[in-house]
Amino acid sequence: MTTTATAPASSKRRSHRTAQHRTALWKDAWRAIAVNGKRFAAIVVICAVGVMMLCGLNAVGRDIRGGLDDFFDATHMHDISIVSTLGLDDDDIAALRNVDGVNKAAGVRSQSVTTKVDGRQSSATVTALNDQKLDQPYLSEGRLPNADHEIAVTRQYLDDSGKSIGDTLTFSPDSTGSVATATASSDDNGDGNDSGTFADGKYTIVGVVIDPNDIVNPSGPLALVSGAKTVYPMFVDDTSLSETGADNPYTSAIITVSGAAALNTYDDDYLTKVDDVRQNIEHIQSTQERHRTDTVKAAAVDAALAQLDDQRQTIAAMPDGNPMKTAAEQKLDDAEQQIRSKVSDAIPNAAWILRDRSAITSYEDVKTQSAMITRLGTMFPALFLIIALLVSLTAITRMVEEDRQLIGTYKALGYTRGETMLKYLVYSMAACLTGGVIGDLLGLAGLPFVFTRRMLSRIYVLPEYPLLVNWALAVDGVLLFVIVITGSAMVACGGSLRLDPAELMRPKAPKAGRTIFLQRIGFVWNHLSFLGKVTARNLFRYKSRALMVIVGVVGCTALMTAGFGMGNSALTLMPRQYGEISTYDIMAVTKPADHDDAQKSLDGNDNVTSTLPLQVGSVTLSAAQDGDESGSSQSGSAQSGSDSKLTAQLMVIPDDESIDDYLDLHTADGTPISLDKTGVAVTANAAKTFGLSSGDGIALTDAMANTADMTVTGVAQYYTGNVVVMTQTAYEKAFDADIAVNADLIRAKGDADAKIALADDLAGQDQYLSVVSAAKQQRDFAKSFAIFFVMIGFIVVMAAILAVVVLYTLASTNISERERELATIKVLGFRRREVHGYVNKEMMLLSAIGIVIGLPCGRALLGFLVSRLDLPGMNIVPNVQWFCYAAAAALAFLFTVLVSRATNRSLDRIDMVGALKSPE
């Protein structure tokens, strides 16, 4: 009875005692956070930064893509567009609407027009709003036009012209414009628009809009480096069509796909859905092309035969049997046959060109840059994860050393390994979770704000960027750091937990002294001072800690070197472009019909040194198709939405002219490129997009959809813009068309101000469509690329955090480990400054080693970053000047000094009596 009654009571006491033990362990774990607050803060900061960059940079990429997707949905942006070489009619639109998977289809009428903006001849595209409200311009101010002679324009047009809502403008047709381009005007002396698509007269500005087909900020870096002339988009109501314009064929057809709006425009599901419908359209393509060809040729034949009606009536009035009537009828039949034959030969067969959203430059730019930021969001967190591992391993290892006797006591009292380890696991996990939550808040809200609102808004004119939260990534980022850091805590505890309690409760024996390497070099060792010898021995004594300091400073210095080098490389793009390659001062573009008059004016201008007449245009680059022969062709097949495409400037050099004084074409290693009569020179950025090298093939498509496969004769070093250069013979052979000289490269006299003044004077003359001043572009470039300093500042801040956290953690650990040694030298009479120097000299020396190694590592990191950056139209070549290295080294050294100053207070507060008393 007694035994039976005692057993439950004993079990109850053990259970009560176990609960008390666990409570004590948890109290001890939470107390450790307060006692070791500085180490805890270091782990929190490094985790916060790592999680912030992992979640934040990936969030920025999603926000950019999401912003464009929302914008496209709001404007009912087309998923597929079709351009035909003979235009499209209502039968084509009706056929497209019946294609399986097509949601809406609409015909678009647009025209190239010319006008004056601020006294200068300018270009624009006037487009009639369609009844399906597809590609609807985004309204920023005012309203959309809903009556004739009302027009909506972009903010850029208002800024450049000085006009505002309520003002009027006029425009006249541009006879040289293609179906794909247009020109705009704002003067009151436009020609009559009888033969144009739109009615003539004054148009009242009723709204300010964003063109969904072009969201590039006109004052941003992408617009600056493109080098293309300004084309102002304008929109009118379909009631503004002229009498003939309403009967004209559609310029293009635009289509939306059923269910595509519910998907993100960059997702694979979206691309697959659009590609399926594109293939369905291909099934009716040949039929509609034949129908359109027959319709256009029949109309042309009818119009030509109408001229023979009078003769036919005269012949019909002649009496039957008259030999002259028979001969006349035969001649008339022969004439009719000749007309039909000539019309058939003169009018080519219709060919459709199918394009998806990838043909829109802005679409591809956003895709490229969001992918670039996402790649950075993987690389930088990996660096901080490694640093977090080192910091946490150092901090937890030191905590375990300090708690050596306590761990021995716990083991002697019967605590399990898990219970003994609980304190350190809770400590590390609490630091990770705290840092992770802070990092998620900063990464999901802070970084997207900085990058999208402050940085990307300078590149694009999207009205807003959504805040898209990926909770899975936010949680996974925190878990990643928790696993790594708690894992390091377990590793740090493992060694001590394997020892016996008796061994743990005794002080750890110091390591035996060893002869270091420097002691074997007598002429060095013998000339070192006492403190120098102590410093040297301590460096070799604490190898792991020395290595961590060096790694931290190397990372800090490398980041800053890469950041400063990136800024310098970007800011020297324009000076290098116009100093090494484009040696002309001005590019002036006219209409081909106006070029002779413009050339005569330039020849008589005293401020002009020399000119190079040439043809300047625009082409679309794509991968050459296997089996195609070089030459002109009308593309009759749809283009795959997955094919890479790039818009480039085309320069055609007349055979009797030399480009050497205006454009220095050479490869990256300086080898000159000679233009031949069959190939083209392609600039480096375009070559990178398609992976081209000399001898490869590239397809060029002009504004009239003529495509020619060309051979690349050389890849030219070029820093800003995508350019294709070819000779007159090569162009005429490839496109089966005569050269149409419409531009001049000009070398001018005087300084930069004089050259800019000359360009402004030319821009004010009616015959010029576009005038680009090299000097002005160089001045504007620094302002436009101020966004790069946001990235540079971000990198420097990250480097500072990295350096401070690592150095402070290791410095404080160093002091706590050597309290007894430092207390001894204080007792021996070392003054404060001497004690500070005793410790800080080691830190300074290790930092110096880290800086020396970090500088070349930074140059290598910059090369890696540049290889991953893919900025449209920019070929950033690493260019690190001496002051970039000097700034990075100075800041790294400054961080070391600041940390040393901060840890000096810990040296001053060492309790000599407490540190020197016997541990036993």
TrEMBL record:
It is a multi-pass membrane protein. Residues 379-492, 794-900 form the ABC3 transporter permease C-terminal domain. It is found in: Cell membrane. Its main location: membrane. It comes from the Bacteria. Residues 1-20, 175-196, 623-644 are annotated as: Disordered. GO terms for cellular component: plasma membrane. Pfam families: FtsX (PF02687). It comes from Bifidobacterium callimiconis. Residues 11-20 have a biased composition (Basic residues). Keywords: Cell membrane, Membrane, Transmembrane, Transmembrane helix. The lineage of its organism: Bacteria, Bacillati, Actinomycetota, Actinomycetes, Bifidobacteriales. This is ABC transporter permease. The keyword Nucleotide-binding does not apply. Residues 630-644 have a biased composition (Low complexity). The chain crosses the membrane at residues 40-60, 376-396, 424-451, 471-497, 546-567, 785-810, 843-867, 879-899. InterPro entries: ABC3_permease_C (IPR003838), Membrane_comp_ABC_pdt (IPR038766).
